[in-house]
Amino acid sequence: MQPLFPCLAAPDDRPVLTVDGRTLSAAQVVAAAARHVAALTALGVRPGDHVGVWTQPDLRSALALAANALAGVVSVPLNPRLGASEAAHVASDAAPRFCFAADPQAVPAGPLGRPLMLDHLLDETCPSEHVTMREIDEAPMLVLYTSGTTGLPKGAVLSAANIAHNLDALASAWLWTAADAVVHALPLFHVHGLVLGWFGSLRVGGCLRWLPRFEPASLAAALCRGRTILFAVPTMFHRLAEAAEADPAVAEGLRAARLLISGSAGLGVREHQRIAALCGRGVYERYGLTETLINCALPVSGPPRPGYVGPPLPGVELRLCDDQRRTIAAGDDETIGEVVVRGPQVFTGYLNNPVATAAVRDAEGWFYTGDLATRDQSGALRIVGRRATDLIKSGGFKIGAGEIEACLADHPEVREAAVIGVDDPDLGERIVAFVVARDPAAPPSAEALIQHVAAALAPHKRPRALHFVAELPRNAMGKLLKSGLRALAASRCS
Ligand code: MCA
Ligand code: AMP
User: Fold this and answer.
1) How confident is the model over 437-480, as pLDDT tens digits?
2) Could you tell me the distance, in angstroms and rounded to a whole number, from the CA of residue 254 to the centre of ligand 2?
3) Partner of 45 at 20 to 30 A CA spacing, among 75, 83, 372, 486?
4) What's the structural domain count of the chain?
5) Residues of the domain holding 355
């Protein structure tokens, strides 16, 4: 078997991680992992156990996630702004033996308990233990929580093999090598920032320059040093383009990068054109899901194609299907079907939830993404929509409308609530809520309800606009009509 992170199997002085001006070499990462293994042993944590990591904006968050992977411990990466009800769900579902945080004091007391600190990672006086190099095995490596249309977020279990296969396929599409430094300002609790950005850099033996907070000027400056690749979500490209129009240094950063890669949501064709006009080069898109990792990517051996996410990656089997799950053979760039994939990148299943797993993956291993696409003669896909309108993509985060509706309905002054995603030039979609107050004569303030959601759930799930209505639009059968809400949102210019 091969090591998962070859550069850590024979560690040397090459830089592999830069955060907030501090750079660590491969040898230093392995030394930090050795101290983490000693800490895990002292706690009685064994390979396969679940361990939470609050992914605060700190070098140690990244180190802990790599060290857990090497130790064979399953990381449950946690949004450092996780709301109280989400934390309760993760605590009961994933049942992490312990949680770690770079700054435990900043984690509010809650069902996941006070986290243990990660000071040992950078403290050379702490005991260390030999690190057995993790191989590309089928054992779980990550549990990543992802929202669905209804119910609570589900824990997608990804194995080391899922991750290694997918990263190798991406490396071939992007000609990604040890000579590249990835620059990103993404969170480490999702696939994009963690699996692609951090684990991807370790897999190819390159360096990750992680900016824990998104800020266009710093990101652009980081792109100017050496051979760099930018990973970002469309909202970040939008904000980079806005900044580049005002500040030539930002445009220079975008020009300096070897590659600009966008994903997690669709980048509008106009935004593609705007960036190309600003910096004379295009953005390559790729398409994936938490459960399947990345399925399609435009190979950089050809030109970027605004609107297209490329053909399936090597090793990925892909079909378009109709509503009855029958294969659509068309390659006319017009016929729309659901994207269905199979291959070594598809997750092992949802944690503790075989019913939900069976709903998305059939007996032959085909995973039904819920995304709608066309395919052209060359096999390149265009993502044109989603089957479920109750899934919202805002800023690159997937958010279930039902989760926010349930949270609003929990508020004592709310009788009922409905949530939709509305097109937004910056966020892609923004969350808009409609609320029927329990006492319409004395409703709570919209701000209080928005704050209620931001506290119970992560703040990115909060509605950006909230309207009070006398009643929600329903059909004769009493079914909620979200199309009616869309029209209402448009009329209120929310
Ligand atoms: C705002 N904040 C609040 C409140 N309002 N805090 C408490 N209560 C409130 N009412 C805080 C936030 O926590 C945050 O703080 C700041 O104010 C701004 O929050 P927000 O408005 O949510 O952020 P934004 O400015 O809209 O963020 C834009 C963003 C972000 C930076 C682009 O959306 C982002 O990081 N997106 C990346 C998503 C991602 O990685 N997706 C990958 C999924 P502070 O500033 O201190 O944090 S993986 C995937 O999709 C697949 C596999 C794929 O293909 O990649
Ligand atoms: P998540 O569960 O957060 O991993 O989000 C996965 C979803 O993001 C997919 O099902 C798509 O709807 C969307 N997505 C990811 N990449 C792209 C892209 N390049 N274009 C359009 N949608 C995308």
Assistant:
1) 999 999 999 999 999 999 999 999 999 999 999 999 999 998 99
2) 23
3) 83
4) 2
5) 6-375
